[in-house]
Design a protein that fits this description.
174 residues, alpha+beta, Alpha-D-Glucose-1,6-Bisphosphate, Chain A, domain 4, 8-stranded antiparallel beta sheet, 4 helices, 8 strands, 21% helix, globular
Amino acid sequence: MAKKKSRSDVTKNTEEQELVITRIFDAPRELVWKAWTDPERVKRWWGPKGFTAPEIRIDLRPGGTYQYCMRSPEGQDMWSGGIFQEVVLQERIVATDYFSDKDGNKISPAQFGLSADFPAESTVTITFTEEGDKTKLTLTYPIPESAAARDAILKSGMEQGWNESFDKLAESLK
């Protein structure tokens, strides 16, 4: 009997120090790219189940910034932001990623209830690969060398949050 494939493949490569989440979307790469880079489209799917994204700002260019507001079901706004390091149209985005206040200033992840060991800033890489008429999206986060920081990331719910967000992204592409 064939093993049922999960909705995403998650790899925790401790040798490479990365958390990798891969998802195949039943949509062409151009559409998945737009859903990721157009602020109005990002508002439709950003955040885990039950969360909304009332404000999204994207200046998609190397050196440009982004800032996302994610609102919890209880009404708490959680802001994040970063700076685009690399943008290859419909192929790859590399950006810093950190928690921020509504004005884009970096703040401690502890202000949102995360462990004091959670990294203050990371670099995320998102790749978009054509797979026939579908799109393979791969999200990669580095996992710090420190055991405490690594545990903070792996226990933070980041993986679950991304998978729930990707579920919403898949729905928004229909």
